[in-house]
Structure formats: C-alpha cells, structure tokens
C-alpha cells in the first residue's frame, strides 16, 4: 500500500479534476448529461484509479490501475477538445487543462515504466 498524500501523480490528478469541474461549470445546461457529465466522470476517474491501484496488494495491480487512469486522461482530453470545437470551452481555458493532462500522462507513463522494472525483476 502507498500513502496517497505523498503520491505527486495523485495530487496532480486531484488538481486536474477540480479544474475540470470549474471549467465545465460554465457549459450550457443542456450539456448537463453530455459533455459536463462525461468530462467530470473522466476527470474524477483519473485520481480514483490511481488511488485504487495504490491501495492494491501488488505492484502489477497498481500498474494496471495506472493504465486505466491514463485511458481516462485521454478520454478527458478528447471531450475537452470537442467542447472547444463546439465553442463551449474557450481556448484560454482549454490550453492549460491540456497542459495538465499532458504532464499527467507523462508522469503516468514514467511511473508505469518504473513499476514494470519492479515487476520484471520479480519474475
């Protein structure tokens, strides 16, 4: 088990989720069950999967949950780009969110590579 509060990747994912909630609060109400809900669920899924993986009993399971979190980050990225193309989300708001997502994806990939080394050492 890992201490979540010490995981930089989890803290950054929490910050991203909060920022997505703020950004989607300006979306039209008719998107309540569309892009608002989808974006928020994907954003919350990222730190949630990191947390679930951190609480698992094996490095291999943690690595798997990091992969799920990473998939959610790509899903979120896609939804935010769609919102921008629909003129629901301004580029001034989109660009910093995309930068956060990119950084998180790089961190996740690096963390997975480190965990892969640990997994391969054990076998």
Automatic annotation (TrEMBL):
Pfam family membership, one: 23S_rRNA_IVP
Top-rank taxon, per record: Bacteria
Coiled coil: none
Classification via NCBIfam families: four helix bundle protein
The protein's name in its UniProt record: Four helix bundle protein
Organism (species): Pedobacter terrae
């Amino acid at each position: 088990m890992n201490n979540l509060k010490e995981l930089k990747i989890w803290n950054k994912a929490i910050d991203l989720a909060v920022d997505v909630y703020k950004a989607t609060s300006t979306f039209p109400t008719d998107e309540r069950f569309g892009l608002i809900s989808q974006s928020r669920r994907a954003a919350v899924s990222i730190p949630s999967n990191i947390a679930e993986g951190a609480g698992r009993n094996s490095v291999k399971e943690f690595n798997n949950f990091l992969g799920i979190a990473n998939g959610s980050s790509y899903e979120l990225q896609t939804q935010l780009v769609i919102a921008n193309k629909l003129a629901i989300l301004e580029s001034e708001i989109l660009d910093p969110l995309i930068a956060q997502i990119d950084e998180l994806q790089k961190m996740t990939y690096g963390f997975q590579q480190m965990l892969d080394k640990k997994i391969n050492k054990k076998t």
